[in-house]
């Protein structure tokens, strides 16, 4: 009889970059005896074989929300078809919708509108009692230290918060129960406190913080200073504990320095203790910020530091609420932390390592773990280019000395996977149907497109005993992470409501001007500021001509009176950098300077009617 453990290990491409976990990854070739014909088999054949084809006109069972990486946006996909449905601009400028151009979007971006870039990593959906409620999606911006909220009824970003006192928001997760009161966000990179030019050459005085943002107001509620740095994070199902990995306990300023220690740690935060300390006034404020800052460094009653193998990365809560699992990255192991032992740890009744109840060896480069809700975990192995399926309780039994094989399967993915995400897996409702793996390299998977290659998202069927790869597809600009929820957990609007707060300030401006947005087409002059109000009904703007003077600041306000689903209008003023989308029953506005005299056409940019091309007007600019 074939030894099952040896059989599983033989699946691994263990010699693949064995001698270098941190360099040369992009140049690695294929190994393990897989021929080109097997690797290049068509996605259509996989889909047909596994019965997942979504025919034209059929709807997907799940929504997927992908981070857009350094594109700064969120992408919406249907699962299992993997069809891209929408792109939601967040930290980027988007000329199609006018995001970063319209007055409404600039108000949401606030002072940070001066940044033209973003780096989205972790999208997460609000919860009630541990289940997705479909209200909000939150996402971080590592590049410019921000957190954004997207309203899922309209699929638009409605709030963006810049986080004070820290740099580089990376790990982000939400409070799961009783509801998403807080958005928890890790600042990854330590800086001097206060960062005003002091301590530039004194890394010992650099620190970073764990941050809690109020999910409704989007104000920063409190911050906790920690030792080391912070990477990924997740919350429990009691509302009390949040855990975060630290890969740089050394506070090293170079790559070599960050790898000196044989162990780093997971820091656990006691949210109830932090709230009590804030209420008791046991905090300080830094610089111009009024956010309460608490001390969570070693020895604090607010935190505990659990040693784990060096340079851990992902931190994922099991859907049964029992475990935090920290992924080793430079160790072939994952560390299983029992959440029910944490009260004892905070009472100093046990030692920090006593909270670790399992440490299975999975392969080279474990980064992230997801779950199927049936007791199995799925961990990406970056160096091995595999996903390892393993059983949590069996891994705990093996840690306690039993002769039990916790590995169930290893599946090759292409190539170097980072995040993975199974359907509903961040909630208590994990259903074990689909697993998405986001691979960092695509190499020979697609037609060559020059030196910059796409990345590769792969869909795996995990509904049975064996994982089955059923689809892969190219994607652009590192979509770092994703999240999947059932289609019935969302209720997107089909048209806008006229009292939507998204354009409330524009509506207030019209009221101050004595303008009825739903019917008036008029020009209001206020010195050298001109406000142009017009309606749109396919295929015509309510104003087809207006006159201004050279140097005027012109604000165009368009209200789309069409009530038909999917009948969106656009407004583009030629040669003025002005562009915006106006959905049915929406009001949008854009401001620009009429700096040159002459005739300038405006037109509808979203196809709306057989006479769409004729939906135009003229701005006449008189010489000053």
From TrEMBL:
One Pfam family named in its UniProt record: nos_propeller
Cofactor(s) listed: Cu cation; Ca(2+)
UniProt cross-references to InterPro entries, sorted A to Z: CcO_II-like_C, Cupredoxin, EfeO_Cupredoxin, N2O_reductase_N, N2OR_C, NO_Rdtase, Nos_propeller, NOS_propeller_2
Gene from which this protein is expressed: nosZ
Binding residues annotated for Cu cation Z2, in chain numbering: 121, 170
Domain of life per record: Bacteria
E.C. no: 1.7.2.4
GO cellular component: membrane; periplasmic space
Complexes and interactors: Homodimer.
Binding site for Cu cation A1: 569, 604, 608, 615
PANTHER family in UniProt: CYTOCHROME C OXIDASE SUBUNIT II (PTHR42838), NITROUS-OXIDE REDUCTASE (PTHR42838:SF2)
Binding annotation for Cu cation A2: 604, 606, 608, 612
GO terms for biological process, alphabetical: denitrification pathway
Binding, Cu cation Z1: 313, 368
Residues reported to bind Cu cation Z4: 480
Domain Cytochrome oxidase subunit II copper A binding: 525-624
MF (Gene Ontology): calcium ion binding; copper ion binding; cytochrome-c oxidase activity; nitrous-oxide reductase activity
Region of interest (COX2-like), residue spans: 528-624
Pathway, per record: Nitrogen metabolism; nitrate reduction (denitrification); dinitrogen from nitrate: step 4/4
Name by which UniProt lists this protein: Nitrous-oxide reductase
Annotated catalysed reactions: N2 + 2 Fe(III)-[cytochrome c] + H2O = nitrous oxide + 2 Fe(II)-[cytochrome c] + 2 H(+)
Organism of this sequence: Halomonas urmiana
Enzyme class: oxidoreductase
Known role: Nitrous-oxide reductase is part of a bacterial respiratory system which is activated under anaerobic conditions in the presence of nitrate or nitrous oxide.
């Amino acid at each position: 009889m074939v030894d099952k453990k040896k059989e599983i290990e033989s699946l691994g491409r263990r010699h693949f970059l064995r001698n270098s976990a941190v360099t040369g990854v992009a140049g690695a070739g294929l190994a393990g005896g897989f021929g080109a014909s097997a690797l290049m088999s068509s996605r259509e054949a996989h889909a047909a074989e596994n019965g997942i084809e979504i025919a034209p006109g059929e709807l997907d069972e799940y929504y997927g929300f992908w981070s857009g990486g350094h594109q700064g946006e969120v992408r919406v996909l249907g699962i299992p078809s993997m069809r891209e449905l929408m792109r939601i601009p967040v930290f980027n400028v988007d000329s199609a919708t006018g995001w970063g151009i319209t007055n409404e979007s600039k108000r949401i971006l606030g002072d940070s509108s001066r940044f033209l870039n973003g780096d989205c990593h972790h999208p997460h959906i609000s919860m009630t009692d541990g289940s997705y409620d479909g209200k909000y999606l939150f996402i971080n911006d590592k590049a410019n230290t921000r957190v954004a909220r997207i309203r899922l009824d309209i699929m638009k970003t409605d709030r963006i918060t810049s986080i004070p006192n820290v740099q580089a928001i990376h790990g982000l997760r939400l409070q799961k129960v009783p509801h998403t009161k807080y958005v928890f966000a890790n600042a990854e990179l330590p800086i001097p406190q206060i960062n005003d030019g002091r301590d530039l050459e004194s890394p010992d005085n650099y620190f970073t913080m764990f941050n809690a943002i109020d999910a409704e107001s989007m104000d920063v509620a409190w911050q906790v200073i920690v030792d080391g740095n912070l990477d990924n994070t997740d919350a429990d199902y009691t509302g009390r504990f949040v855990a975060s990995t630290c890969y740089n306990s050394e506070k090293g300023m170079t790559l070599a320095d960050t790898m000196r220690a044989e162990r780093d740690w997971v820091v656990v935060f006691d949210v109830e203790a932090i709230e009590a300390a804030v209420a008791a006034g046991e905090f300080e404020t830094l610089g111009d910020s009024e956010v309460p800052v608490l001390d969570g460094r070693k020895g604090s009653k607010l935190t505990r530091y659990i040693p784990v193998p060096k340079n851990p990365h992902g931190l994922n809560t099991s859907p049964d609420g029992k475990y935090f699992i920290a992924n080793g990255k430079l160790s072939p192991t994952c560390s299983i932390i029992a959440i029910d032992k944490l009260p004892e740890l905070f009472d100093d009744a046990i030692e920090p390592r006593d909270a670790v109840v399992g440490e299975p060896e999975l392969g080279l480069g474990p980064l992230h773990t997801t779950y199927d809700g049936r007791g199995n975990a799925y961990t990406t192995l970056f160096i091995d280019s595999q996903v390892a399926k393993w059983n949590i309780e069996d891994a705990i039994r093996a840690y306690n000395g039993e002769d039990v094989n916790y590995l169930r399967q290893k599946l090759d993915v292409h190539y170097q996977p980072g995040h993975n995400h199974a359907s509903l897996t961040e909630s208590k409702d994990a259903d074990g149907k689909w697993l998405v793996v986001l691979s960092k390299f695509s190499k020979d998977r697609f037609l060559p497109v020059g030196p910059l290659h796409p990345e590769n998202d792969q869909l795996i069927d995990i509904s049975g005993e064996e994982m089955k790869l059923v689809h892969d597809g190219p994607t652009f600009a590192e979509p770092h992470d994703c999240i999947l929820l059932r289609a019935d957990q969302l209720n997107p609007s089909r048209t806008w409501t006229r009292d939507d707060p998204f354009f409330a300030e524009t509506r207030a401006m019209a009221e101050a001007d004595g303008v009825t947005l739903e019917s008036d087409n008029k020009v209001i002059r206020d010195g050298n500021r001109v406000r142009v109000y017009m309606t749109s009904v396919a295929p015509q703007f309510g104003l087809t001509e207006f006159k201004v003077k050279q140097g005027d600041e012109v604000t165009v306000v368009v209200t789309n009176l069409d009530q038909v689903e999917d009948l969106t209008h656009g407004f583009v003023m030629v040669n003025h950098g002005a562009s915006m989308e106006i959905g049915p029953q929406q009001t949008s506005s854009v401001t620009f300077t009429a700096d040159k005299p002459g005739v300038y056409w405006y037109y509808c940019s979203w196809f709306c009617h057989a006479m769409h091309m004729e939906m135009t007007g003229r701005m006449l600019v008189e010489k000053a």
